Amino acid sequence: MTGLTAELVVDGRAPQTPALAPNGHLLCYVLAPTSRIGDHLDTEVWLTDTDGDGEARRATTDTATESRPRWSADSGTLFFLSDRAERGIPQLHRFTLADATVTVLTGWRTGIIDHLPLVDPGRIALLAEDEPTEQDARRARDRDDAVVVGEREPRARMRLLDLPTGRITTPDVFDDRHVVELRQRPDGGPLAVLTQASADNDHGPRTGRLHLFDPSTGTVEELGPVAADAHSLAWWPAEDGWHLGYLALTPPVLHAGTAVFDLALASRVLRNRTTGLPMCPTELVQTDTAPLVVFADGLNTTLARLDPTGPTTLSQHPGRLDNLTTTRGGDHLAVLTGSRCQPANVHLGPPTGPLRRITDTRPELDGITLGTQQPLAYRAADGLELDGLLVLPVGQTASDGPFPLVTIVHGGPYDRYADRCQLFWFPSAQWLATAGYAVFLPNPRGGQGRGHQFAASVAGRVGQEEWSDIQTGIDLLITEGIADPDRLGIAGWSHGGFMSAWAVGQTERFRAALVGAGVIDWGMLAATGENGQFEAALGGSTGWSGIGPHPHDAVSPISFASRIRTPVLILHGAEDTNVPLGQAVYLHRSLRHFGVEHEFVIYPREGHSIRERNHQLDVMRRTRAWFDRWLRP
Q1: How far apart are the C-alpha atoms of 345 and 323, rounded to whole Å?
Q2: Which pLDDT tens digit goes with each residue over 477-509?
Q3: pTM of the prediction?
Q4: How far is residue 336's CA from residue 344's CA, in Å, rounded to a whole number?
Q5: Distance CA 172, CA 157 (A)
Q6: Do 328 and 398 sit in the same domain of this protein?
Q7: 205: closest CA among 130, 271, 258?
Q8: Does residue 308 lie in a domain region?
Q9: Please, what is the Cα angle at 72 between 69 and 77, to 5 degrees?
Q10: What are the pLDDT digits (tens) for 76-97?
Q11: For the chain, what is the radius of gyration of the CA atoms?
């Protein structure tokens, strides 16, 4: 039997973005490697019959980044993006089923961002930035390239491709706004168009507006502003006419649970259709009738139909359901899901279940023994119901404890651990379980899966009750004889990195910590991170909130750096714009100043996630070596 290696983890391939043909007979999906070698991620579009033997075939033989597969309304043509002609510049391609030919449809110089085949078979809506002008080209040649913030910022604009002629036109609509998403009414009527004031992640998500665009007349109807971070547009018919829905953050706080918003177009009445639910919508999926809603529900997932009286549960599934796609009638679906011991694959079935697996993209993991994974349910210090996961060392049971325990905190904080296979390149439970560690994966308040209020409770209070929630879970595992109190470690990436840095400034109970792309100063992150306004909502203030001390100082790990005695491993991408590298530098300099044992690793060319194969291997090996050094000397 082969043991688990770092190479087995990072050299895998995973299916992404399945797209079920409207008639339900064919399915396509993108197959993507877990890691990247070189400058480009080479992905592939695959096709499979849903009612045959399930054997898959590639749509092309190109070496390219292929993405965003979309079917024509008659299920006879597949459209997708590919950069085979010029790497890094995706163009729209057409795969015709009748003769299995691939045709390039665009040569837009800035590339195509997204596309939507319309019910009219001769037209496709495109999203693309403006092509460079002669003046732009001259400025580039002369290196007259000073950037004036707010001027000539790139924006995605809606364009229309006429397939018979190949001509692309740009309707003069939506002023100078950045187009985020398009969705056509199922009967071939107008397009719902979601726009923002700019593509800037800090500013744009709070400036969303909704429009109706009639492709036959070129006219626009304004529907007004939408809640922050709106996405996942869907149409459906009702007794009072057409409705248009979307997912967005629940007002008024920026860090909050998502909700399904329902706009009745005849009356212009807008309703939150998921108020008070103890779970969180993650996807809203259009059909010809009532839309489907995917809910994060604790450690698991609920699939529901949005009926006039509210969401009606259709089925419940362990772990996660992602990238759901359906037939036009919504009676058949495809989705990405897995199990505790199998990574996600494409599954098919009716909305009421069961679902059958039709891809097997990680056969190399067959026969690999993983640690036993089990759900945990416990109560916080104030009585709030919480959950999480425990992964035991490979080949061990709880009675074999106590074990060295590493707690890995999830990111977000609006994310969650679901009861799925916990095997990834970043600090992951099964990778540590293979080395003899028990791993605790907590879902403290502030995360996804228990409703709006659970998520909103950490706004301005990061590191407070959520930290208490995590400690309560650790104490429970110590009491049950699973965790060795003298061999505790903590780790996390992004918000999890913040919690790891926060933890070692609050207590000396941990023997080692890993801070991956972590938040060290909330004020600095609000000022320099790409999601500044959201970070300000979490930290509670900004540096320009008057003369300090500020509320964010009290919840920033840097304020407690003088208390840190725990050895810390700091990992960060050099090009991270979400949590900029300066956060890690700040922690490194403070630990150096106070003489704290630590190691600081910077990964060139990497952003908030680590993508290059050798870097992923380094993260995995360095993570285990660090905890081995301090927890298993």
Answers
A1: 11
A2: 999 999 999 999 999 999 999 999 999 999 999
A3: 0.96
A4: 6
A5: 10
A6: no
A7: 258
A8: yes
A9: 75
A10: 999 999 999 999 999 999 999 9
A11: 25
